[in-house]
Amino acid sequence: MLSRQTLRDEPERVREALEKKGIEDVDFDEVLDIYEEWRELKGEGDTLRHERNEVSRTIGELKQEGKEAAAQEAIERSSELKARIQAVEKRADELEAQLEEVMMRLPMVPAEEVPVGADESENVERRREGFDDLRALPDEVTPHYDLGEELDILDFERGAKVSGAGYYFAKGEGARLEHALIQFFLEVHREQGYRDVFPPLPVSSKSMEGTGQFPKFTEDAYRVEGEHDEPYDDDDLWLLPTAEVPVTNMHRDDILLDDDLPLKYQAYSPNFRQEAGEHGTETRGIVRVHQFNKVELVNFVRPEESYDRFERLVAEAEEVLKRLELPYRILEMCTGDLGFTQAKKYDIEVWAPGDEMEEGPELGGRWLEVSSVSNFEEFQARRAGIQYRPERHESAEYLHTLNGSGVAIPRVVVAILEYYQNEDGTVDVPGALQPYMGGQEVIEGHEPVGESALGAGERE
User: Fold this and answer.
1) Smallest Cα–Cα separation from 201: which of 230, 173, 222, 226?
2) pLDDT (tens digit, 9 = 90+) per residue, 66-78?
3) Per-residue pLDDT tens digits for 291-348
4) CA angle, corner 416, sides to 362 and 171, nearest 5?
5) Could you please report the per-residue DSSP string of 28-91?
6) Choice among 36, 369, 389, 397 that is catalytic
7) Cα dihedral 295, 301, 305, 308 in deg (nearest 10)
8) Crossing angle of helices 28-64/11-20, nearest 10°?
9) Does the CA dihedral 353-339-285-203 come out positive or negative?
10) Nearest-CA neighbor of 8 among 46, 35, 33, 27?
11) Catalytic residue among 52, 223, 288, 382
């Protein structure tokens, strides 16, 4: 969350952040009113306690001097002060709780260099990679959802039968491809100095608050434990939407040492999101599904190093696409498309040539976001109480957190099936991935099984 000093010293900057990020469910004037009353009461409480201490000190002196009447007046004044202090503290505590709640709904202020824009149409393309030497593609590239079914490596019908819309089976070489990508990504990031973490999949409400998913995005999460039609409690459990949540909260309420930083974790996990699969044409295939695999990169860094580390994190995330020789681009999010928690964010979008989109690239196909690399500055650290001590004798300070997907796997599968497909309907395995596929060079698919795979004549 934002610091109260920011609220005090830069209220208009916070108001501007609300406008730029399009957040309309916060009455900022009410927030300021609560904050100002709380500040005034805290100041009044300090003044009253100081006066009561002075009065209490004089009572003994007055009694020693035999000034009983004056001492009695001082006792009565001390009682009055005590009653007023109790009333002030009670009201201040009420306001403290209100302030804590509304502060959780204030977004991170965008970094000054973030481009101003209303929505995703005003994001800024920073660069493209891998387009200078594109491989020869079939005259008509088959979309991954058709090709996956033809090769019998993706099964949407059985996924829906087992779990409902938005789920799929990866089968045979399709499953092998996902497993290979997971291992490949993890190995690349180990080379970059990342420490492996395999996190628990259920996470608490408190953890979701720590990284900023709650209270704003409760409707997108899968609740595991707790009353499903009631507001959440701290001890409710949810399926993780991203490994960012458990990995960041590993150090909730911790004080790290300067020597620990930068701290770099990577975590593979399945991820669960209710919002996926609700975006028109993207409900076909595996571009938007409710469960998907991802490798997440999480960094804990010193504040003065966070923007240098941010650029390095972008390079670390995109390295897997470079090695797979998949064309992609880097987008900088404008203020209107910047998330609730981020100060700055880049998206990495891979090119998938198989599906013509109305607003797709000029060379056909479409862009698929496979990674969002974000700098949260101290926003998450404040919410989760994550600090570090620059020197052992110095006070603890809030550090900065960053993360990025390294990367989302289903959309990379889409890009591989569409970009590496051949005229005969087979798919070449990228060279960098072949060692993780047991040396396999081509995905040829499988014969389907069961009576449903037979033609009408064969079934008779």
Assistant:
1) 222
2) 888 888 889 989 9
3) 999 999 999 999 999 999 999 999 999 999 999 999 999 999 999 999 999 999 999 9
4) 140
5) HHHHHHHHHHHHHHHHHHHHHHHHHHHHHHHHHHHHHTT-HHHHHHHHHHHHHHHHHHHHHHHH
6) 369
7) 0
8) 150
9) positive
10) 35
11) 288
Task: Assign 345 to helix, strand or coil.
Answer: strand
What does the block give as tokens for 164?
A: 């409902």
Q: Is 288 a catalytic residue?
A: yes
Return the H-helix or E-strand segment holding 202.
Answer: strand 202-204
pLDDT computed for residue 359 by the predictor: 59
Q: Where are the domains of the chain?
A: 4-103, 120-443
Catalytic residue among 306, 372, 374, 405: 372
The two three-digit tokens of residue 332, written as one number: 């900088």
Catalytic residue flag (residue 395): no
Residue with structure tokens 């970094």? 111
Residue type (1 letter), 179: H
Provide CATH code, domain 120-443: 3.30.930.10
The token pair that represents 449 in the structure block = 């099984």
Phi and psi for 48 in degrees, rounded to 5?
A: -65, -40
Active site residue 204: no
CATH superfamily name and code, 4-103: Serine-tRNA synthetase, tRNA binding domain (1.10.287.40)
Cα distance between residue 220 and residue 98, in whole Å: 25
Question: Of residues 178, 306, 411, 418, which has the active-site annotation?
Answer: 411
- Answer yes or no: 369 catalytic: yes
The mean predicted confidence, pLDDT, of the chain is 92
The single residue listed with the structure tokens 């926003």 is: 379
Catalytic residue (choose from 273, 309, 312, 382): 273
Is 269 designated active site? no
How would you label 73-103 residue by residue, b for 16+ Cβ within 10 Å and e otherwise?
Answer: ebeebbeebeeebeebbeebeebeebbeebb
